[in-house]
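Researcher: We're reviewing a set of sequences before deciding which ones to prioritize for further study. For each one, I'd like a predicted 3D structure that I can look through quickly. This is Cobalamin biosynthesis protein CobD. If possible, include the structure in token form so it fits the rest of the review sheet.
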Amino acid sequence: MTFLSILFALLFEQFKPLRADNPMYAAIKQLAARMEATFNAGQEGHGRMAWIVTMLLLVVPTMLVYWLCLKINPLAALLWNILIVYLTLGFRHYSHYFTSIQLALNSGDEATARSLLAEWTKQDTAAMTTADISRIAVEKALITTHRNVFGVFFWFAMPFGPAGAVLYRVSEYLARAWNEPEHLKNEAFGRFATKAFYCVDWIPARLTAIAFAIVGNFEDAIYAWRNFAHRWPDEAIGIILSAGGGAMGLRLGTAVETASSVPTADATTVDSISVEPEIAPGEEPTVRALQSTVGLVWRALLLWMLLLLLLSFAVWLG
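Model: Here's the predicted structure for Cobalamin biosynthesis protein CobD, in token form for your review sheet.
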């Protein structure tokens, strides 16, 4: 049932992509904002309580409906799973940005590429070169694919089923919504949401990196993961980007030759890292790197689907 649910959800999304501003997402955003307004009194414990209440309001009903569908008819449970996976997956949510940036760079229209990247990443791109645009677009694509697709795959395959997929996507959103806005940056309220998503994403991030290594250049991916993932302040992002860059033969993230702060794909600023004697393997990203990223993501997706198919067969035979 897991494999069929994901397969049908992916097929539906190819024909009818779910808009990023759909009513379901808007309702979750309103709920998160209401929880923050209700519980935020400046303490981390208040953020913990708000996170738990939000999860109970969203995860528990999802699980109860799934159990009820199983009691009624397995087909009803399958349809419910497809619906939840369709709502939690985001394979096509932002792909139009990546595709449009790729087309703009291929035609030499850097101004349009900068504008699209700024809209996608919410950061200033006015002074970026073609190499910078390509690098950040590749980084953003890898991170977005992991959080919108592969992370959902992992948690949906867990015994929680659709509730696990909801848990992952909502925890990822709360980690952003309660930390990134200006009035919440560096506040204690959002710390628990960050810690919770770190735990939720610990295994999926490493499985995504392993998938990139398997379908790409395995030796360079593992080497970059082991030696250069620590250069990112976010451990999970560092693992995914170092492994993904190594798999494609690209040098992503902060350049070791400079001592300036460098913007990254998730619109944060990475402080300079002391110059190290060894340079990360790979070349600087170019326009062609965007096509390599598309190939890497699709190969990783096929690998995940194959593993899920084998897992489904094992459960069925068992």
